[in-house]
Design a protein that fits this description.
Blueprint: E1 6-9, H1 22-36, E2 42-45, H2 56-78, E3 88-94, H3 103-110, E4 114-119, H4 131-143, E5 146-149, H5 155-160, E6 167-170, E7 217-222, H6 229-241, E8 249-254, H7 260-267, E9 274-278, H8 283-292, E10 295-298, H9 307-314, E11 319-323, E12 337-341, H10 345-357, H11 359-376, H12 379-392
Parallel strand pairs: 1-2, 1-3, 3-4, 4-5, 5-6, 7-8, 7-10, 8-9, 10-11, 11-12
Keywords: Transferase
Region (Disordered): 185-214
Protein name: Glycosyltransferase involved in cell wall biosynthesis
Amino acid sequence: MSGGPVAFYAPLKAPDDATPSGDRRMAQLLLAALERAGYGPEIACRLRTFDGAGDKKIQERLRAEGEREAERLVAEYGTRPPAARPRAWFTYHVYYKAPDWTGPRVAAALGIPYVVAEGSRAAKRAGGPWALGHEGAERALDAARLIFVMTQNDRPSLEAARPAGQDLVDLPPFVGTDFLPPCGGGLGRGVAQPGKPPSSGSTPTPNPFPQGGGEQIRLLTVAMMRPGDKLASYRLLAEALGRLGERPWQLTVVGDGPARAEVEALFAPFGERVRLAGRVDDAGALARLYAGADLFVWPAVNEAYGMVLLEAQAEGCPVVAGDEGGVASVVRRGETGLLTPARDADAFAAAVAGLIEDGARRERMAAAARRFVQGERSLGHAAMIIADALSAIGVRP
């Protein structure tokens, strides 16, 4: 099956949504991987089906909107020449809070494969406030010819409920290292420094880290500032930093959002050791921030897996993160970073302290982190996995 585009949909957050997040970034990367693999993807739908409140009326409204969108798309595709109609439908991130009410209907009407990346089953939601969303997600996952499994936490439930004829293929989270500027290892990597010009092809970036005397270890955090899990992670991070004593560290925080005032208050006691740099949207500038850091730190409360952890490692920055959700799927424990027990500020502080004091280990982890991402978590590697899996079900580039 070849010819037309692959229809792409992300019901949690469209790839061109105005608000940055790991979900938006992964949607963008999947589009890029499909393009790299030769499938000419097009965004078919931007309907956001997310219901964070567990409100049945909201879910009923979203279901109706999704069904109407399916009818509209089927009619629209019917006006195209056969060679221009979608040859497959590809949905990213299906779960009970953001089901796909549209894709399965369109795929069935057109007689094309329905494909999901990062599908999650949650049987315990069958009778609760998200019962309708759960039903929609389950129906979509049941309809999928192929599911790309992006974290091993999802695999057991997907295996247990897998219908006959459905393929499950591992597609670990990845980053677009091809589009990041080249940055070598070492202190201040890729960041313009006094008396040293920026690397060729890069835009000079002022030193973003707080200035302190002596050999300060440069810590970096990149995360939205919003209530809930993100704020809980910031709270744990501040608590852990408070236990580092007089060790030589400085922290730059990249991010913004509605909880900025609370984050500012959390880090105010550290004075000039912490700099809140605000939101950075430019990928090249963000890459230089990662490359200029010695250690990326994030407690990762309830994190699905944490795109920022992969992005940091891609630039040779080892990480310390909480071992929660799918974080273990993006960090090589003890090799590219350290994972600590979930929500344990003491353990997190101990891990950071150990790496502050062991520069040789940091350097080994930095080199291993870059090798790991370039070798196993690159856009090109993901494109090959996607192309092989789609070809196996008859959808060829």
